[in-house]
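Issue 218. Parser rejects a valid record. Input:
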Amino acid sequence: RGFPEKVQATAVIYFKRFFLYHSLLEYDPATLMNTCLFLASKAEEYHISIGEMTRRVGGGPDCGPKGERILETEVTLLEGLRFNLLVYHPYRPALGFVSQLKLDYPTLDEAAILERARINTRALLCTDVILLRTPAQVALGVLWVEAAGFRIDMESYIRKRFGQSADALLAIVKNIAKLCEGAKANMNEFVLHHHTPPNSPLRALLARYATLRNPTTDPTTQAYQDARRAREEEHETKRRIKEAIRAREQAESEDELLRGP
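Output the parser choked on:
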């Protein structure tokens, strides 16, 4: 809540990228989603404090336990993303395509079709197509869904615009449009119930999830606290060893200077 559209989209893509390489049983998706939002707000230059971030995700006005967990998992998220924070979205390609369509359809309501494209893109964020197709292909797909309502012949536009590669591109665009329509239907069902629908198989999965998670990655368990304490002790031991080695080398260097040539 309260985050710009681009920040939310970037956070979703961070979330999907992270769990391409990690298991949901190892990391709490709720905590990771909050961390993705916090990191995306930095990447998209929408700067907020950790206290404000915690307040927006329902953790109270101060940093608190939720804020501490966000900060603890931020480095883990960065490592999982291979420190690649750059994300390209379909919004700008959609704007470019609509500007070109305006030349062929002078009465086209640009603001209206871009708003519909934005809603369609939001639905596609619930799918993996964002990771599988380029932003330009996704932009054409979300515009294809709305083309009939705005009396636009998207197939003619694509054939004129992309020439010999149009056939392959049309197959991709039609597939994206089909996925978009399915995603919108699922999203509308979720909004209608304001929660996971009663007959959704997701409810059974969520019920089992708590019993399957690795307890050492669950901040609410004693196993997590013990593992955290062990990591801190290991870090402190390594730090002391490095200091001891540095002190010994310095002492040996000073002895050599005192003995002279």
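Fixed in the parser; the record now loads. The chain is about 70% helix and 0% strand.
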